[in-house]
């Protein structure tokens, strides 16, 4: 069975965006970017909401920029190969290797999990909260940046307690710490 990961860059005080909706404080170091590239190569499907999908569409053509770094070209290539399922009630179409759904069907997601293959990844706090509510997320990877934002959008938008097992940690240049947790059985 495939696992669904919720992966998020987060401030030390638990926010994924500042109060203006900006994420410029979470630009990864080159080392961390290569780490994300390798992760992306091991993902079969990315699940996105509308807003994250529109943000990530940058990668559809990012490698065509002659000034793009090797790490960016590599990520763009890996990302375009990964299937995306976008959940939106307002989008009429999605670009690239993507399909559109109007709402999350937990049975459909569970069937995708039950298929053989690599990882599945959910992005965005709102969509992740829906997946968590339905018991679909297996692993959490939190990349903590050394910044305190004071306010903004929290990583978790849930109303229930999650009991987790610590799996591992890793430190990256820029003093960024990754913490990996899995749900307790």
Structural overview:
The model has no long low-confidence stretch (mean pLDDT 96). This protein has helices at residues 30-41, 50-56, 70-81, 106-114, 125-133, and strands at 4-11, 15-17, 43-49, 83-87, 98-101, 119-122, 139-145, 153-154, 164-172, 176-183. A hairpin with a 3-residue loop joins strand 9 and strand 10. The longest helix is centred in the first third of the chain and has 12 residues, at 30-41. The strands form 2 sheets. Strands 5-4-3-6-1-7-10-9 form an 8-stranded mixed β-sheet. Strands 2-8 form a two-stranded antiparallel ribbon. It has 185 residues and is an alpha/beta fold.
Radius of gyration: 16 Å
What is the typical, i.e. mean, pLDDT? 96
**Helical content, roughly?**
25-40%
Sum up the overall morphology in one term: globular
Low-confidence residue ranges: none
Terminal-residue CA separation: 15 Å
What are the main properties of this structure?
two-stranded antiparallel sheet; globular; 5 helices; 185 residues; eight-stranded mixed beta sheet; alpha/beta
Summed up, what is this model?
The protein has 185 residues and is an alpha/beta fold. The chain has helices at residues 30-41, 50-56, 70-81, 106-114, 125-133, and strands at 4-11, 15-17, 43-49, 83-87, 98-101, 119-122, 139-145, 153-154, 164-172, 176-183.
Task: Please outline the helices and strands.
Layout: E1 4-11, E2 15-17, H1 30-41, E3 43-49, H2 50-56, H3 70-81, E4 83-87, E5 98-101, H4 106-114, E6 119-122, H5 125-133, E7 139-145, E8 153-154, E9 164-172, E10 176-183
Helix pairs in contact: 1-3
């Amino acid at each position: 069975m495939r696992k669904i990961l919720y992966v998020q860059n987060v401030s030390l005080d638990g926010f994924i965006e500042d109060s203006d909706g900006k994420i410029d404080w979470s630009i990864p170091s080159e080392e961390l970017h290569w780490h994300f590239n390798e992760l992306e190569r091991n993902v079969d499907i990315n699940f996105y909401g509308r807003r994250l999908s529109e943000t990530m569409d940058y990668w559809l053509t990012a490698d065509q920029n002659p000034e793009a770094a090797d790490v960016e070209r590599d990520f763009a290539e890996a990302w375009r190969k990964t299937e995306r399922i976008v959940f939106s009630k307002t989008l009429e179409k999605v670009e690239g290797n993507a399909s559109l759904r109007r709402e999350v069907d937990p049975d459909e997601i569970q069937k995708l999990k039950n298929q053989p293959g690599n990882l599945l990844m959910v992005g965005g706090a709102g969509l992740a909260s829906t997946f968590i509510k339905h018991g679909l997320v297996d692993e959490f990877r939190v990349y903590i940046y050394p910044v305190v934002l004071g306010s903004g959008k929290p990583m978790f938008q849930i109303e229930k307690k999650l009991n987790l097992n610590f799996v591992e940690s890793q430190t990256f240049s820029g003093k960024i710490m990754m913490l990996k947790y899995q749900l307790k059985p």
